Amino acid sequence: MEPNIAYLGALVGDAARSKMLTALMSGKALTATELSLEANITPQTASSHLMKLVDGELIIVRKQGRHKYFQLKNLQVAELIEQMLNISASMAQTSIATGPTDERLKRSRICYDHLAGELGVQLFDALQSNGWIVEAQDMLTLTQLGLSFFSELGFDTAATKKTRRPLCKACLDWSERRSHLAGYLGKWVLTDALARQWAHQDLDSRAIEFTPHGLKAFKSKYGF
Amino acid sequence: MEPNIAYLGALVGDAARSKMLTALMSGKALTATELSLEANITPQTASSHLMKLVDGELIIVRKQGRHKYFQLKNLQVAELIEQMLNISASMAQTSIATGPTDERLKRSRICYDHLAGELGVQLFDALQSNGWIVEAQDMLTLTQLGLSFFSELGFDTAATKKTRRPLCKACLDWSERRSHLAGYLGKWVLTDALARQWAHQDLDSRAIEFTPHGLKAFKSKYGF
DNA sequence: TCGATGCTTCGGTGGCAATCGAACTATGAA
DNA sequence: TTCATAGTTCGATTGCCACCGAAGCATCGA
């Protein structure tokens, strides 16, 4: 029988649940209370929503002490949310007052496990103009030049063979309407920047905050 | 502000509307009455649903005489539906009696504009084992060998430069859980087979019916 | 053992949205 | 002009589901 899309749609199609899912796009595992705050609902209500999301296999739980940590089930789910974000962003926009938080999100944010926003797009452009990646017919490939560039930086090229995940991949950006770098390489770039303490992830949102020095180092490293 | 996923989800998250959208995955434009039959609802109800889908920019209308023809708005929407079909197919399955129609769907069906189902997967495998396409890190590329093979068949390689659409692309199959050929090339293969009258699309479903002779020709053409 | 915190279960309420019957408008055919 | 078909608008009904208050269970720290 044909799969039941309606069930999946209804799962996402509730304001509270969609806020939770979007919050989980940060890649972090969040507790039930945190998610209830995110969605502006009481813990009771949140609990029932979370149960539904788990039943629907969109998220998973890890119980740790008296906390329950929730996260998106897998990359496939994250990609679904991402695509829905893109489509709804391109729909006729009732753009209400954008607060300061939104400004930060627009500048640089995490998109499940890689960098998005203005900075993500700038990075993408720089990689391209330096000839490290090539976009042909919407498919992204790492050039030989790019391969040696990234292995010098400490990127483990051997590890990419083990994963079935695409090495690099263009990911449409809902705020910029431009491509940014996703895939295994995109994940590595973000992880690396965080590890070097050039930036840190906001505790309560998907925003990525670069230090002045970190931003400079980041830009010079990738040549822009 | 962040895009509103919930609205989009709710749009898909109704049984009647999701049936309509799935029906429109055939790529054909359908009338309001046809869609109401597809969803098992009265024309009045269908009318209100269709209005919502148009408002939500998931589908578009063309008025022709006293008919209204509906179709998916663009490729992005079709990809969303496809992705949702995949995810819901991989969810814990309440697999109820699969009728004969479903058997046909499983064998070979249209996935917006390219071939899916068992036959689509077989084609994909054949193209791969003949060395015409290569799947590396989940990215699909047409080899030089494949390029000359397809241009001999009459595939206009120049035209691919004009479109931003990926030339070939792996598309996960919800019934087979395997890749099949999507993208520009995938579309061409299907169009070509239909033009040669090797197969025809069922009038009332997404099934693709190959003639015995057509199937033979199709298989020998692509070497499987 | 006791209180505090995190989460869940239960029951009742309220609101929204899908549905259809009936009546209406538009297009086409005879 | 008249009938048939395609689609819409309106109003009333219905059922589902998100929501919260209250009470309950589980884990942790003292």
Describe this structure in words.
2 copies of one chain form a homodimer. By secondary structure, chain A is an alpha+beta fold. The first copy, chain A, has 2 domains: 5-77, Winged helix-like DNA-binding domain superfamily/Winged helix DNA-binding domain (Arc Repressor Mutant, subunit A, Orthogonal Bundle); 98-221, no CATH class. In chain A, 50% of the residues lie in helices and 19% in strands. In chain A, the strands form 5 sheets. A 3-stranded antiparallel sheet of chain A has the order 1-3-2. In chain A, a hairpin with a 2-residue loop joins β4 (109-111) and β5 (114-116). In chain A, α2 (15-24) crosses α3. Chain A is globular. The mean pLDDT of chain A is 85. Chains A and B meet through α1, α2, α5 and β7 of A and α1, α2, α5 and β7 of B. Chain A binds a DNA duplex (30 and 30 nucleotides) through residues 14-16, 31-33, 41-49, 51, 65-68.
Structure, briefly:
The structure is a homodimer. Chain A is of the alpha+beta class and about 220 residues long.
The greatest interface between two protein chains, and residues involved on each side, is: A-B, 57 and 57 residues
Order of helix and strand elements from N to C terminus of chain A: HHEHHEEHHEEHEEHHEEHEEH
Strand residue content of chain A:
15-25%
Distance from N terminus to C terminus of chain A (CA atoms, Å) equals 52 Å
Count up the domains of chain A: 2
Q: Which shape of chain A, going by the Cα principal axes? A: globular
As a percent range, the share of helical residues of chain A equals: 40-55%
